[in-house]
Design goal:
binds fe (ii) ion, 4-stranded parallel beta sheet, 8 strands, porphyrin biosynthesis, Rossmann fold, binds ligand L6N33NVT
């Protein structure tokens, strides 16, 4: 967690008129946002998490009156056990939390160290989860209370989707709706084609393959899926995934015949984006591909979908259908290349804000009007 104690310049009493509110120093908040994860693998922890996640209308676009009865009766009676098993197989037992949480915290710690080494404590870096803990709304409030009058929201989804990026930002905006004195907000745009991101991915492939005793016949680039309907309704995610896959292949200098893409983690019975990862892995093995490497560039951190579904279930599928060697290229996680890439994006998206923040560290801001001098309604707002 970020150190959110008030900045030393926050209570500069020398310049403050008597009885005046404390005006915090001007800091910048950077809030990393990720999906979220259950607190435990038992039935009730899983149920709580899935209920919150699957009740989000950005995720399931079925009218509430139809969806809620199905969710309560069908999904939440069976899925918690099934998914609980998957989470249990990858759980970080040392910290008693899911890998997604451990890695997101490590990413925030790494980014904070890199940013503060250059910009000092004027920039505060924190992290939060859309579902479960640590929640987004209190994190936004903590940043504001720590003196951040400008906040950059950084959803850790390289390919924008309304189901992930937008709902994470919505949640931060919900906190702003309750604030009288809102911080200014920026959001990090989709970075699916950012050269630094593509380069970090390509280097992770090269690093990983250099350690393998075999050369893959094929690289499968697997993304989390989405209902096809979301694409038809205008979600750009599918196109962004395809662009990432193409740019990665071009950066690696591999021919089209050696790289495929697919979509995993289908949920429910509707049609999702195709080709499906499990069907592709099976077909590749049956077509005679013997050595397969798989990468999941849409996940900033390893999680149940990469560690259990890709490196577990899909590995088994490939080997069962005639494949001989399978290797999963880990997500960028808290690797220094990733931290450097995140820092580059933060610096770009904070342009125009960072120098002002450096200045503010030396010149505490003091509101010129004492609270008592203001008319009643304004006094309330002022305090
Ligand atoms: C039911 C609809 C779902 C949509 C739409 C969806 C989109 C989507 N999700 C991610 C990233 C992650 N999803 C993760 C887990 C997960 N996803 C769904 C459902 C949808 N996702 C469920 C029910 C679950 C929970 C696990 C399970 O029961 O299968 C995770 C992992 C979280 C973890 O704790 O490890 C991530 C990350 C993206 C990128 C995306 C669309 C673009
Ligand atoms: Fe998902
Ligand atoms: Fe899954």
């Amino acid at each position: 967690m970020a150190d959110l104690r008030p900045h030393p310049t926050a209570a500069d009493t020398r310049h403050r008129p008597p009885g005046h509110m404390t005006v915090p120093a001007r800091r910048i908040g950077v809030l990393l946002l990720n999906l979220g994860t259950p607190e435990g693998t038992d039935y009730w922890s899983m149920r709580r998490y899935l209920k919150e996640f699957l009740s989000d209308p950005r995720v399931i676009e079925i009218p509430k009156l139809i969806w809620q009865p199905l969710l309560q009766t069908l999904v939440l009676t069976t899925r918690p056990q099934k998914s609980g098993k998957a989470y249990a197989s990858i759980w970080n037992r040392e910290r008693n939390e899911s890998p997604l949480k451990t890695i997101t915290r490590d990413q925030a710690d790494g980014l904070r160290a890199a940013i503060q080494a250059q910009y000092g404590e004027t920039v505060v870096v924190d992290w939060a989860m859309r579902y479960g803990q640590p929640a987004i709304q209190p994190a936004v409030q903590r940043l504001k209370d720590a003196g951040c009058d400008r906040i950059l929201l950084f959803p850790l989804y390289p390919q924008y989707s309304a189901t992930t990026t937008a709902t994470a930002c919505d949640q931060a905006f919900r906190q702003l709706m309750s604030m009288r004195w809102q911080p200014a907000i920026r959001t990090v745009p989709s970075y699916h084609d950012d050269p630094a991101y593509i380069d970090a991915l390509a280097r992770s492939v090269e690093r990983h393959l250099a350690e393998l005793p075999w050369v893959p016949d094929m690289l499968l680039v697997s993304f989390h899926g989405l209902p096809e309907r979301n694409l038809e309704l205008g979600d750009p995610y599918y196109c962004f995934c395809l662009k990432t896959a193409r740019l990665l292949r071009e950066r690696l200098g591999w021919p089209e015949t050696r790289v495929r893409h697919s979509f995993q983690s289908r949920f429910g019975r509707t049609e999702w984006l195709k080709p499906y990862t499990d069907a592709t892995v099976t077909a590749l093995a049956e077509e005679g591909v013997k050595r397969l490497a798989v990468i999941a560039p849409g996940f900033a951190s390893d999680c149940v979908e990469t560690l259990e579904e890709l490196d577990g279930e899909n590995r088994e599928l490939f080997l069962e259908h005639g494949g001989e060697a399978f290797s999963f290229v880990p997500c960028l996680n808290a690797h220094p290349d990733h931290i450097e890439m995140l820092k580059g994006i933060v610096e770009r998206e904070l342009s125009g804000w960072l120098p002002a923040a450096r200045q503010a560290a030396h010149h505490p801001v003091v509101h010129p009007v004492p609270a008592q001098a203001l008319p009643r309604p304004l006094r309330a707002a002022h305090g």
